[in-house]
Design a protein that fits this description.
The longest helix has 15 residues. Strands 1, 2, 3, 4, 5, 6, 7, 15 and 17 form a nine-stranded mixed beta sheet that branches. The chain is α+β, with helices and mostly antiparallel strands. It has a single domain, classed as Double-stranded beta-helix (4-Layer Sandwich), CATH 3.60.130.10.
Length: 279
């Protein structure tokens, strides 16, 4: 197979691309791996249709983007014999952890870079995932705002299960008494290591991202809210409608995403590998 067989189709005017011409169920060449990386890093979201991957196929694809990473407290929620493949089920509307614009695990010392998810069980309707382009969000800022946030870091907060606690359920749904807070600082405007382009790096203001270094929380919140709101305007969003055989890759370094929970109690399960992170 040559690169001439690879086809890229933009999904919107601002974010997302679909790629065809590579069979992910077989060993692929380094040139094809380069094409996968280039498509993702430049478009933030990469869609590959009709790829019914085995766990080994899934692992091979994720390794194209980096070293698979899964926090210790997800061990009980990983695929049998594949401790780096997380099982992401229907948590229910009230506990849906992804139903807002966010970046995965931004509170960690080294946040993950790329996520590679595939459809395992899908509801008859609903369950879309939306993505926004954080390169575009940054480029649209005024020069004054770019200067204001240049070199500044945001305080990202989250929690994890206490190590002394035995895990009785999914870490996302444990009560606060069984969790401990975690926070770390990361640049708000980040230069992507592969493309050299600057993207905003954000999470939920007042919840997952609470302050800008050097400013109080009260001073920070209006700025963070402005950046967050303008990052997900309709003309900067791709909404993915999942179907069997889909593989969806997104780059947390230049994209936020939002899992729409409009499917009630229907079963919806994704298998996801995240790469590049560290606790």
């Amino acid at each position: 197979m040559t690169n001439e067989t690879i086809r890229l189709q933009p999904l919107t005017g601002s974010v997302g691309v679909s790629l065809s011409g590579i069979d992910l169920t077989t060993d692929f060449t380094e040139a094809e791996a380069d094409a996968l990386r280039s498509a993702l890093y430049n478009h933030c979201v990469l869609i590959l249709r009709d790829q019914f991957l085995s766990p080994d196929d899934h692992m091979r694809l994720a390794a194209v983007f980096g070293e698979p990473f899964l926090p210790w407290y997800y061990a009980k929620n990983s695929l049998d014999d594949y401790p780096k493949i997380a099982i992401v089920p229907n948590f229910g509307k009230a506990k849906a952890p992804a139903e807002s614009w966010h970046t995965d695990w931004s509170h960690m010392p080294t946040p993950p870079t790329v996520s590679v998810a595939l459809a395992h069980v899908l509801p008859e309707t609903g369950g879309d995932t939306m993505f926004s382009n954080q390169y575009v969000a940054y480029d649209r800022l005024s020069e004054g705002m770019k200067q204001l946030i240049a070199g500044r870091r945001g305080k990202f907060v989250g929690s994890r299960p206490k190590r002394v606690q035995k895990m009785h359920g999914r870490p996302d749904t444990l009560p606060s008494t069984e969790r401990e807070p975690v926070d770390n600082y990361h640049p708000i405007a980040r230069v992507h290591p592969e493309t050299g382009r600057t993207a905003l790096y954000l999470n939920r203001p007042g919840k997952s991202m609470v302050a800008i270094e050097g400013l109080t929380e009260a001073e920070s919140l209006p700025i963070l809210q402005f950046l967050y709101d303008q990052s997900s305007t309709p003309d900067n969003v791709y909404r993915h409608q999942w179907r069997p055989g889909d593989v969806v890759c997104w780059d947390n370094q230049c994209a936020m995403h939002y899992g729409v929970h409009d499917y009630g109690d229907a079963e919806r399960t994704l298998h996801r590998i995240t790469v590049g992170g560290a606790e």
